[in-house]
Amino acid sequence: MKPASRPPLFETVRPAHTLTISSGARTRSIRLRPWALKTGIAALALSATGCVALAALILSGDNVAAAFKAREARTVSAYEERISDLRRQLDHAASRQVVEQQRIAARMETILERQRAIEARAELMAPLVEEARPAVLTPAPAASAYAAEPAPARMPFEGFDLRTDRASDARLALVEDAPRDVLLDTIEAKLAVAERHQAAELDRLAAEVEMRAAQAASVIEQAGYTVPADASAMGGIFIPLGSAGSEKADEGIARLSGALVELRLSREVASSLPLGRPVNGARRSSAFGVRTDPFLRRQALHSGVDYAARTGSPVLATGDGEVVRAGRNGGYGLAVEIRHPSGHITRYAHLSAIDVALGDLVERGETVGRVGSTGRSTGPHLHYEVLNEGTAVDPAPYLNAGRGLEMLL
Ligand SMILES: [Zn+2]
Fold this sequence. Notes:
Layout: E1 17-23, E2 26-32, H1 34-132, H2 141-148, H3 166-174, H4 177-222, H5 247-272, E3 283-286, E4 289-292, E5 299-302, E6 305-308, E7 314-316, E8 321-328, E9 334-339, E10 345-354, E11 361-362, E12 367-371, E13 381-388, E14 391-393, H6 396-408
Helix pairs in contact: 1-2, 1-4, 1-5, 4-5, 4-6
The structure holds zinc ion.
């Protein structure tokens, strides 16, 4: 301890701190040195901070827990949000895939429908082509191919058989969307080619058959007979398949079908008429019309056509019909008469023999008798008559029509 009275060698600027304690009349002053003051203040501050911290700790214990919980909740919620976000992304991807699969499935279904339509059409075409073939001068190889295979088991073009080829289905499922679409595009292009081919083939055949039918009708009209226009009674009218993208082919089938009906009608009308030749390889020696009668030596109507032929040459029915007369018939000698479905009657006269009996049903080309010279005849020949509603008409148009139709029907 230094004595308080001893003066310092160097005076400091800092004023001395003095603690004054008063008690009644007595006053006591204590001078405080700076280090002691600092220490005291520090001790006081320390103890105050400790008290505050303790109080804060005691008071805020609950708040800290709450804050911790809140922070935990925020973390959990962030995770949940992330998870649901991922789930949304996953759902979106899954639904996109489903939509894509449905789109591909729809395309495949359309393709299969078209393929089925092509096959069904090919089956419908086969009998039509078969029927049209005789009417078509130069049958196309494709037409023969259709006819040769009435019920094709596979598609009429190279490529996949989508119905049975499961392996190709699996391949389709494996490839990515874009190549899969390219593959389907290729198949659709092939289907379109097959449809166009069918349509073109049908159009070509229909045009030829229509031409034949028109020519046949015209030839029949030259014989004085009209082919009925109403074809609805014939039946067998084609019902279109109605598949998408193949209207032209369906129209082609309807057109060919209609043309064949016309041709069939002409054929039926023709077969009902006496249009055939009554004797083969014979020269026509006398025509129908007014001529000098070989017996009377004056102008008279020759009611038929004469054919010079050897005795015994076969005499043929010129059309389908029923024998309505067979035997001696005055100046006609041995004669046969046939009534045809059209109502016409044909008469075959001066025969040397008769091969049919009354009531017999005969077909065109069937032998009904033999060339001879019975009745009013000057030598072996066939006298051939055509009667329309009981009146003898010129057989020439019928014979000419028959020759014309030979090429057409
Ligand atoms: Zn005659």
